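Feature request, filed as a ticket because there's no other form

It would be nice if the structure record came with a short human-readable summary line next to the C-alpha cells. Right now we just get the raw output. Example of a typical job, pasted below so the devs can see what we mean:
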Amino acid sequence: MGKLRLVWVFLLSGWLYSCSSDNDTLDQIEQEQGFLTKGVYPLEDVGDLDILINEIGNSQYVLIGEASHGTSEFYTWRADITKRLIQEKGFNLIAVEGDWPAAYSLNQYIQGQAGGTAQQAVQAFQRWPTWMWANQEVATFSEWLRQHNQSLAQNQKVGFYGMDVYSMWESLEEVRAYMETADPAIAQLARNAQICLEPYNRDEQLYAQATAQGTSCAQQMQALLEAVQAYRSRQPANHEAAFNAEQNALVAVNAERYYTQMIRSSTGSWNVRDRHMQETVNRLVAHRGNGAKIVIWAHNTHVGDARYTDMATSGMVNIGQLIREQHAAQGVYLVGFGSYQGQVVASSMWGAATRVMNVPAAMNNSWEDILHRYSAEDKLLLMRELQDIPEALQRRGHRAIGVVYNPASEAGNYVPTVLPRRYDAFLFIDQTTALNPL
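Raw output as currently delivered:
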C-alpha cells in the first residue's frame, strides 16, 4: 500500500451511508432481527464449518475476506477454512494480498526448500504494514502448510503466493539477480529500468509526482517484460524459476502503471491493482495446470463483489467481481467477515507505529449492528437463504477498517452494501481480539 493507496477508504466519507437509526421504532428493530431467522448458523468451532465446506462444493475459486488487516480471528478462521479446503477439496494454491517477492520467499519455506522457522520465514515481509503477514497467526498457518507438504511430491505441494502490485523495486531486483546467470542481456534490461528509477530513491510518491510532469520509466519496464516473456517461452512449461522471473517483470510493469495512476485517479489506481490481482490468479492457475484450485485471501473490499456496493458508482471493480465474471462456470465462492466490536492492530497515520486500538460498537442499523442485536454470538450466514427476503436485500453500512484507522471517526469506514449479493457466505465474530505481530 501507499499514502494514496488507501484513498478509497477516505473516499468512503464521500459515499457516507446514513447508518443512524435514531428514529427506529421497536417494531422496525424486531422486523430487522426477524428476517435473519433464515440462513444463520452457529459458529463455535471448526466443525461448524461443515455446512460452509458443503456449500463451496466443487468451486475452483474460493475468495476469503477480512474486515480489517489486524484482527486475529479473521486470520485464524480464514486459515481453518483453508485447511479444510486443502484436505477435503484438493485446493493447492493460496494467493494473498501481499508482495510477490516476499510471499515467494515464504513459499520456499512452506514447500520445504528453505530452512529456519516459520517465524523467521514470515519476516520476509518487510514493507509497511509488516504486521499484515509477519504475524504469529500466519506463522502458525505456514508451519501447518510446511508439515502438510512434507510427504507430497513437488508437483502436489500447496503453494503460497502474493498477488499484490506494490513491489516495483524489489521485483526488478529479483529479475536482475536471476538473469545475471540465466540471460545477461535481460539482466542489463533490468538494470536499465533500475537506473531510470534511481533518482526517486524507492519513493513511490516521488515517482508518481514525476510521472505527472511527463517523466516515465514505463518503456524500460515494458522492454524488460517482453524479453522475460520471450525467455520463458523457450523454457519447459513448468519451469518454476522462469515463471517467477516473468511474474516479477509483470509486477514491475503493473506497479509502474499503478504509481502513475495513483496521483491522478484513486479509481484508476484501484482498478490497476485489482486487475493485476486477477491476472496473477489466472497465471497461477494456468501455471499449476490440471487440478488447480485456488484460495484467495484479501480484504473484504477486494473480495466482496464491488457491484453490490457504492464502489460501482465510482467506477471501481475488484477481484471478487472480476473472478465471478470470468470464472462462474468453474465455480466461484466469496466469503466475507465482520465483527461488532473488539480490538485491532492498525496505525493512526501512514507509516506510523503499530498500535492495538479499541474498535467501538458498530454503528446503528449497520449490518454488524443488526447481527449483534440478533444475538451476541459468533455466527455463519449462508446468503443463498436470504435472497428472497426483501429486508435482507436492503443496502446497509458494512464496516471496513484499513491499516490506517481512527476509531473516533467511524462514519467513513462503512461501505453501503447489499450483503447477500456481495458475498456467498459471511462469518460474523461478535467480539474480536488484535492480531499478534512478530
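Something like this underneath would help us a lot:
The two ends are 20 Å apart (CA to CA).
The chain has a mean pLDDT of 92.
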